[in-house]
Amino acid sequence: MQNRFPILLLICSTALAGCSGGFSLDPVRDLFRPAQPTAAAQPATVDPDAPPPPAEDARTPDDFDTTSEADRAAASAADEGGADLGSTSATLGDPTLPGFWLETPLVTEVTQGRISYMGRWISVELRPSGGVAGSGSRISLAAMRLLDAPLTAIIDIRVSAG
Fold first, then answer.
1. CB atoms within 10 A of CB 6
2. Which class is 40-161 in CATH?
3. Where are the beta strands (DSSP E) in the chain?
4. Where are the domains of the chain?
5. What is the distance, to the nearest Å, from the Cα of residue 59 to the centroid of all Cα atoms in its chain?
6. Which of 23, 38, 54, 128 could cross-link with 19 by S-S, CB 3.0 to 4.6 Å?
């Protein structure tokens, strides 16, 4: 019986070695691996005036937020108005995607809109998340910072189109 253990171990490790990325021996590390951006997370068109992506060595919120003072001033000029789409809970989205955006199930196509948090309105690009109604939203790092929202919080925001 004792001689079977090394053989069983060899068989199991060989079988696991054949897995094509679908299995990991380190599930804790996998929790912190960045999520692959979804098609919905990508901008619909490339805007030449859009902020550049962050540098490869970006580590801090300041490094990841590549919006300019002019970008922030333009986004802050938004006021209440537009077609009310409802409320959603939002968490920080992919910090490597620059600009002011909200991925949300409240829209089915990319459109311009406004969001409000704690009475402060800003302009954002509304992107469809592909989720079902009530599934929550993801918000850009730049938008979270402009709203003075805690980056690690789930925030409740009001969304309007137009």
1. 9
2. mainly beta
3. 83-92, 101-104, 111-117, 120-128, 137-139, 155-161
4. 40-161
5. 16
6. 23
C-alpha triplet 156, 160, 161: angle, nearest 5°: 145
Rounded Cα gap, residues 128 and 105, in angstroms: 6
Q: How far apart are the first and last CA of the chain?
A: 73
CA distance 29 to 24: 9
Q: For residue 41, what are its two tokens?
A: 């997370």
Could you read off the pLDDT tens digit of each residue along the chain, which spans 162 residues?
556 655 555 555 544 444 444 444 555 444 444 554 444 444 445 566 778 888 888 888 888 988 889 888 888 887 777 899 999 999 999 999 999 999 999 999 999 999 999 999 999 999 999 988 889 999 999 999 999 999 999 999 999 998
